[in-house]
Design a protein that fits this description.
Layout (H helix, E strand, L loop, with lengths): L3 H15 L4 E6 L10 H8 L4 E7 L2 E6 L4 E5 L4 E6 L9 E7 L4 E6 L5 E5 L21 H7 L7 H6 L9 H11 L12 H21 L4 H6 L29 E5 L2 E5 L6
Antiparallel strand pairs: 1-6, 2-3, 3-4, 4-8, 5-7, 6-7, 9-10
Helix pairs in contact: 1-6, 5-6
Bound molecules: zinc ion (ZN).
Zinc ion (ZN) binds next to loops.
Length: about 270
């Protein structure tokens, strides 16, 4: 699943191609993609709208329209967004297409079909789930973690994945943050010392910022991969590396499961 750094890549790569564009035609090939109205109504509202900004909050993206209306979208497990020329053949599972005044098309491809788009009128309450998100990683403070994590008996990994605490962290970066903070992902929130909370406070923003930079790709690379090339796995220290040597101590990394999610950590470096 794309996490905050990957969703940020999608946003920065596509923003110049969608901002300033007017939507000239909309095709919805999978009705359930439009989460809060019928596809027919979505199409009616969307055609003629001009996109003035493309923003991100957690793993959600928002197309801001000149009218004040806005469209929220979530890629979920397998959703991808690309901007293509109309002559480019459609990928399988192209669930939604916005034709733009540039002549290009913003295409939403999603093989699992869990990705959603919501349309909201100006001033309407956002009910996409975005409204309940916790803070963005750069906003994390010790005081906040003391309230939201140190008071809980839940595993740290589970707390890091909770979008209501810090928005945008998924399985990959939760493991990387725990590794860098030298804390096992299985530790309970209320077992963490102030020194450990301080490390988390440094590493949550640092890891996310670093991977946003690692993932920076030019549009040509992004387009060639059909919007799937946005992760630089070579820089991951633990995720997907169970059984391989820890880059710090050389000991085999341990793979485990926490709340149904795979987790990898170093039993020597992480306490
Ligand atoms: Zn180690």
């Amino acid at each position: 699943m794309p996490e905050l750094p990957e969703v940020e890549t999608v946003r920065t790569v596509l923003k110049p191609l969608v901002v300033g564009q007017t939507v000239t035609k909309v095709t919805v090939n999978l009705p359930k993609v439009v989460a809060n109205m019928t596809p027919a109504l979505f199409i009616q509202k969307m055609v003629g709208q001009t996109i003035i900004n493309f923003s991100r909050r957690g793993k959600f993206l928002t197309l801001h329209l000149k009218s004040g209306d806005f469209v929220v979208l979530h890629l979920r497990m397998t959703g991808t967004l690309t901007v293509e020329n109309p002559i480019t053949p459609y990928e399988k599972h192209t669930n939604l297409i916005l034709e733009l005044s540039s002549g290009q098309e913003l295409r939403f491809v999603d093989s699992r079909g869990f990705g959603h788009w919501w349309y909201f009128a100006a001033g309407e309450s956002d009910t996409s789930g975005q409204e309940n998100l916790g803070i963005e990683p750069p906003m994390v403070t010790l005081d906040y973690l003391q309230k939201k994590i140190a008071t809980r008996s839940t595993a740290l990994k589970t707390l890091l994945l909770d979008q209501h605490i810090v928005a945008g962290i998924g399985n990959i970066y939760a493991d990387e943050i725990c590794y860098r903070s030298k804390i096992r992902p299985t530790r309970r929130g209320n077992s963490l010392t102030t020194a450990e909370l301080k490390k988390l406070c440094e590493q949550i923003p640092a890891v996310i910022k670093e991977f946003i930079q690692f993932h920076h790709v030019p549009f040509s690379v992004y387009a060639a991969s059909k919007g799937t090339s946005y992760r630089n796995d070579a820089n991951l220290a633990v995720y997907g590396r169970a059984g391989l040597p820890c880059q710090n101590c050389g000991q085999s990394l341990v793979g485990t499961r926490i709340a149904q999610r795979s987790s990898v950590y170093c039993a020597h470096c992480q306490k």
